[in-house]
Amino acid sequence: MINQSSVQSNTHGTQAKSVISEQSSALTSSQVSPEQNRYASILLVCSWGGIILMLVTFLLYMGGLFNPTVQPSEIPLYWGLSVHKYALATHAPSGWNWVTMINHADYLNLIGLAFLGSVSVIGYISLLKDYVHKKDLPYVIMVALEIIVIVSAASGIFNIPAGG
Amino acid sequence: MFENIVTHVGTIFTATNVAVAQAAGTPGIPWWVWPLALLLTTFLIGIVAALAGVGGSVLYVPIVSSFFPFHLDFIRGSGLFVALACSLSAAPKLLKSNYASLRLVIPLALLASASSIGGALLGLSLPQNILKILLGALITSIAILFIFSKNSEIPKIDQPDALARFLNIGGAYFESSTGKDISWTVWRLPQALVLFCGIGVIAGMFGIGAGWANVPVLNLLMGAPLKIAVGTSMSLLAITDTSAAWIYLNQGAVLPIITVPSVLGIMVGSRIGVRLLRTAKPKSIRYIVILMLLFAGLKSLLDGLGVKL
Predict the structure, then answer these.
(1) What is the pLDDT of residues B37-92, one digit of tens each?
(2) Nearest CB to A113: which of B220, B244, B249?
(3) Which of A2, A12, B19, B160 supports an S-S bond with A16, CB 3.0-4.6 Å?
(4) Residue B268 · residue B33 · CB < 8 Å
(5) Which residues cross the membrane (chain A) (predicted)?
(6) Do B250 and A27 touch (CB under 8 A)?
(7) B148 neighbors A6 (Cβ within 8 angstroms)
């Protein structure tokens, strides 16, 4: 049973040892699997890319460049409103319609954030390729389903009507 | 010296929040004060969160909603991006060090991320006062959980369940304190999958990440070693919060003027907090966090009930 207060050293309890001995040798090596390593590298590069993009576009917005639809100085009039009232008051677009407005600095900002929201999918596509190659069917299915879940969320099909 | 730093962080944090709370009720404050105050507050949250070993967004949402004039919709949207950015910046190192296991992350993340969509939709549909009551009750419960939960460094487990065996979940990591590899596996995966559905709903609904719930489930229920539980939880957040973050983004509930300073402040603060951790492990900071959570939770509860402090 789980001993919530136990703190073991590298010498495991006999139960744990017997369990572990049944695992494959791959599981007893602290070497990182190639697919996990690749996934981590993708997260690292893409997340920093997203954060830098977010920072640059935010500085443009704060500098008053690219003609924001709502000036930073006017935002305090609206940020206390609910998202539905905010959308009505500022004529903010819903779903992906903001993409058509990226010539305005406040929507240009969303590119970096949207990119951060896409990083996991990029990593999962790499994983899907690796698991297909390894013919690891359960993980192929789960990774494919996860991509579908995130892409569905990103697609805007789950939308709450104003006042909802 | 270290204790002095911690004390100063706590003092600055309290002073900042008091100043912000006073400013929130004062008209005529220049607009740029808010993003700057948010940057400073989230920077301090990042330090405190890293020192206390908690996720930044579990402090971010209740504290910012207590002291800043932003609507809860925008704070929750930002909270998810805060959790997402922190997770994305920490996960690569954890995965490359084998402190996180993708074979464990993938099944749990699938259910948590799918259910976080439902949580986000629910959260965006409920009135603010109801959400504040629920948030207050949740944050107060998390504070109590922090008081009573005792994680286990390397839990003893029985046989892994059939599903964990089928998915071949397990691994090994290098324990620097002993210089040896520690092998691990998990059990009770089906029960954990059910719990992760609930965790996903809560994460999406309140925008508070889910490390506070992930770690106890991974460590105490599933029997993953604490280091694996923390690393896997951090890697899970990058996926769980992504689905919910997209719902908030598509709904227009992500205002860059709130989100960007928050993400930057917490990321920089948590990096400094991690560096301070190398010097010492102050238990006192954990009690400060518990007090902050209790205060913010009760304030949110009272705000939701219409009681002004």
Answers:
(1) 999 999 999 888 877 767 788 889 989 998 899 999 999 999 999 999 888 888 99
(2) B249
(3) A12
(4) no
(5) 39-62, 107-127, 139-160
(6) no
(7) no
Is pTM beyond 0.80 here?
Answer: yes
Whether B167 contacts chain A with CB within 8 A: yes
**Tell me, what's the ipTM?**
0.86
CA distance A72 to A70: 6
In a mutagenesis test of the A interface, which of B242, B263, B267 is the best target, namely the one with the most A β-carbons within 10 Å? B242
In whole angstroms, give the CA distance from residue A104 to residue A23. 56
* The pair of three-digit structure tokens given for residue B207, joined into one six-digit string: 């925008």
CB distance B234 to B94 below 8 Å: yes
Point out which residues pair with B170 in neighbouring strands. Answer: B185
Is the Cβ–Cβ distance between B189 and B107 less than 8 Å? yes
Interface check for B278 against chain A (CB to CB < 8 A): the answer is no
Beta bridge partners of B185: B170
Least Cα separation, residue A155 to chain B (angstroms): 8
Measured from the Cβ of residue A135, the count of other Cβ atoms closer than 10 Å reads 8
